[in-house]
Sequence to fold (97 residues):
Amino acid sequence: MSRSIKIFNPDELKEVVRQEVSDLLKKMDSEKKQSQILLTRKEAAKELNISLVTLHDWVNKGFLPEPVKIGNRSYFNAESFRSFLSNLKNNSHGSAK
Fold:
């Protein structure tokens, strides 16, 4: 089995590198967006500056939205979770007046 080597002129090489970098950046951006869709329990607790036990208690008491179960793991919808927190903060600031 023979291998061939492609020889690029400088302009072709620039275009190939530009396209590969562009594709890689798009892939990384897509992966980043996917990772922001769901929050782990640990990430949610960190955003609230509470322990995992407290997070569990708050969910059970209805203080926080129910997490989504995927297999044996629990995740919070990041947008809903942050929206809930934002509303909570806005309501607490409004009641302090």
